[in-house]
Amino acid sequence: MIRDFxxxxxxxxxxxxxxxxxLKANALICVxxxxxxxxxLAARQLQQALHAIPGVDWEIVGGATAPAEQIGAVxxxxxxxxxxxxxxxxxxxxxxxHLVASTPAGLFYGVQTLRQLLAQCGRQVPTLRCNDWxxxxxxxxxxxxxxxxxxxxxxxxxxxxxxASWKINQLQLYFEHIFAYRNHPTVWQEDSxxxxxxxxxxxxxxxxxxxxxxxxxxxxxxxxxxxxxxxxIHLAEAPxxxxxxxxxxxxxxxxxxxxxSLNFLRSLYDELLPNFSSRQFNVGCDETIDLGKGxxxxxxEEIGVGRLYLNFLRKIxxxxxxxxxxxxxxxxxxxEHPELVAELPRNVVALEWGYEANHPFDxxxxxxxxxxxxxxxxxxxxxxxxxxxxxxxAIENIRNAAANGLKHGAVGLLNTDWGDHGHWxxxxxxxxxxxxxxxxxxxxxxxxxxxxxxxxxxxAFRDETGIMGRxxxxxxxxxxxxxxxxxxxxxxxxxxxxxxxxxxxxxxANAVGDLPQRxxxxxxxxxGIMGNLHNASMQRDDAExxxxxxxxAADMLRHACWRALxxxxxxxxxxNDALRQWLLQEADKLLPEFEAIWHAxxxxxxxxxxxxxxxxxxxxxxxxxx
Length: 626
Prior knowledge:
Structural class: alpha/beta
Largest sheet: 8 strands, parallel
Shape: globular
Helix content: 40-55%
Number of strands: 17
Radius of gyration: 26 Å
Number of helices: 19
Strand content: 5-15%
């Protein structure tokens, strides 16, 4: 009876006992809990998993007073029954299934494991004992919904269900300007924002699945969408732009740290926060790259830019605390000034983020731990700036974060999914990174040997052939065959948004060996990876859309290879017009397909900005001359 079963995440302790529990055609799911309604969704999900097995039709009842021979499963919530409040104990005996938890959340998590088991074993359920609980009490996902791509409510609700099945218990939507602030309509009116009504609905949906929807509004940097407008430019630190670590900028980026800016933030908080049931609030405050280089230059020279930042952060904290919230903030600026970390308020949560495999989570975690500041580790899915992901980087980045967060006592892991430079990556590309984050946030050691490709196929793509998990994994690493490494991006993505001269510069500076040969090796690898797509058997309503999304992603990576060969030919003054014309024809196919898959999951706002980047790529071919 014992065979290899796959789980996502892997339970911490699981022992198969060598026998089987044969599922009856008709039996009862008994819910024993102080408040049955809090556990009804978990019971319903178990019932649906059972009903998916031919010939099985079980009924849910409250209590366990029915005759023993009628009982098939008992779901029990007993305070302090488990070591961890989110833990559970699952026992499959030869007579019945028993699931015990201390809280409704723990019961819900146990049902997720049981659902995954039932999906693989049919009517002969292996007898087992499972004792499971999480490493991190806070296991979050943050979605970038401000950089062009704003998902529909249907897309979000489906994603929440998926994340809940992986035991994620926190969700943040990254807001810059994408909430419908009624006192500030001009900034969002063309961008399909989230309304208060939608946030309340999403909050309720999340809460039923034991996910805390944490409000998120960047409050210092990353406010270009506001500050470029005449009615807000007076709040900008550098209205005309300035030199920054990212190079010269000609647009404002951060708030000037003044009382007037605080009044602006107060108006945002008072509209946004009442729509959430969470008592946490992520105020952002990352990457204030122009602070002290504009209107606050004199003050920065007097007290230092680190002190200037900290002073305004503490004022924001007073606003957040005064409204009854715990403030989360990105920790990147304060770690540049380690001497100031000890001056942070004790009741904040620092978010230590970094997205490369070798990010110094160890060093920065030690800094926050030594200062007594609660902190999360915040890796990422590595999907952005990539088209198809960066598989190995995502896995190593998340493992690094999880291991060093545990080492230094982090209280949460927040896995981020960004949308830089047009948010071109389709949502299913992010499933791999989201799955890895969920696994390591739940039980790091138990998931280091997770059979990721199989787990991804079964529990993200619902493809029992295993093809989709392997395809997503391999396509996400195909860029590595170029031999070119770049920070926070794949070279193939950068090629699509760069000029021919930039492409040649990057390739020459970083590549090893024969560049054209390496690019053709990438093309061959993509063909091999995608050749089996038609044999996948995804049991999802959007299976056809997922196939289109991965096909488009693969075509974009192929296009990047040929675009790079075209750029190298220009440099060598090789006759290139036939390739240019072919690239133009291919671009004319890629653009409408991008539009179709975008609108299948996302709102219209932001699309024009995103596709403009693709149109610039196309225009390079239309305007080029030999």
